[in-house]
Amino acid sequence: MQRTWPIFVAAFGATYTFSIGNVTAPRLGPELGASRGEVALVLAAFAVSFAAGLILAGRLGDRYGRRQLLAIGLLALALTSALAAAAPGLWWLVAARILQGAASAIVMPQTLAIIQTSAGGPAQARGIAAFTASSGVGTVAGQILGGLVMGLSLPFAGWRGAVLTSAIPSVVALLGARRLHAHPPNGTERPDLGGALRVGIPLLALVAGLSLGSATSWTWWTLTLVALGLLGLYGFWLNQVRRELAGRPVLVAPSVLRLPALRLGLAMALLLFAAYGAFTYEYSMLTQVGLGLTPVQSGLTLTAFAGTFVLTGLRMPHIVARFGNRTMELAAGLLIAGSLVLGVASWFTQGKGAATWIACFEVIAVFLGAAQASQYGPLVGTVMAAVPDRVAGLAGGLFTTAQQASLGLGIATIGGIFGALAPSQGWEHAFAFALGIQVVTTALFWILARRLRTRPRGFDAHIAPGTRHNTEMVD
């Protein structure tokens, strides 16, 4: 664990970079002349680029060496963070965020793969728990530290200074990367570079259409982007099936998804992170625009949530030992209850001032932080255990692809509904409605978690051998 500290700093930096976008979002509109949809696109562009490159980066790490790919990604993330901070206009910022997402995509699957292959048993469980906590800290630290930087009275502060801070964790992790064990490259096939473009371009078109749709009253071109995105993703899947049947390299091996635990885990990740991505975006808009808090105040209000999330993540091995495979179900139930209470509180505190809403949120946030950490932690272990160690990079890429794609889609869809309702219904009422959608997604998560726990004995066993054979054949 002592030698792997750069892994956890790198995981922190990748999620911190995404979170910085949320806290700066309310300032982008006035300073860059961006509409709500364009601001959402800035945030989603990072997540989409992140998602599109993850699986390819995981396969590249498996083939060329994970420490080498990690160092390249960290250097790229530091440089692209500087580009984003210096962006002269909205579309330059969108382009820079796409590059930031691509750099983060190189980093993240290497971190999970190194943890998976460096230790086993209790040590691996502790490593995954530390990774979960680091990723969670990065997400909430972006809100808190970004707000603090934006509140400084310095010549180069504001949203640009906050964005520039995302280069710091990358530089620190890069300095320590040489301490990591160098895993030998694995595999000889040329990775499916074309597959990355086939999934990345349609995904970007889909999220762009969803982000801009509500702000433009769903004009024909936003609907066209959504349709082209969906058709492109379907075409990508058919292409991957054909390539695997022909024994050619693929980006996503369809045979790997025959593992029931992996399929359910990825579906659960989609539900969990779509709601979470929307929640963090809505929180920033509500507190800074609706309630009139400064970025510093908005960030500090998340302290209780952040602290509970981190502490719960660090205690995850003990929590799982206590509650076993029911942990995620219990966590989902707690999150449903907390979301309902916060929704009711938000509804009835509209027009009563920021202090009343903050007081309610601070109490409920403790339960929300514990619940979300208890969903996320066991889920990572489930997905990483579903495939052999030799394709750990692919497994990390699959999970973090689902995570990042759903963060972007959550902002574009649930966040879009929130943004459309806020002007007419009020910020607190719109937030309560969005929390109602999160209750639905969490209920679906609970159903899948129960199905994962109660699946028939041996159900994975008769599929897993064939899956491993097919994976080895195309890797």
TrEMBL record:
PROSITE patterns given in the database record: MFS
Transmembrane annotation, as ranges: 7-25, 37-57, 69-92, 127-150, 156-175, 218-238, 259-279, 299-316, 328-348, 354-371, 391-418, 430-449
Chief site of localization: membrane
SUPFAM superfamilies: MFS general substrate transporter (SSF103473)
Topology within the bilayer: Multi-pass membrane protein
Keyword Transmembrane annotated: yes
Residues in Major facilitator superfamily (MFS) profile domain copies: 3-453
Keyword Transmembrane helix: yes
The entry's keywords: Membrane, Transmembrane, Transmembrane helix
Name listed for the protein in its UniProt record: MFS transporter
PANTHER family attached to this UniProt entry: ACTINORHODIN TRANSPORTER-RELATED (PTHR42718:SF39), MAJOR FACILITATOR SUPERFAMILY MULTIDRUG TRANSPORTER MFSC (PTHR42718)
Compartmental location: Cell membrane
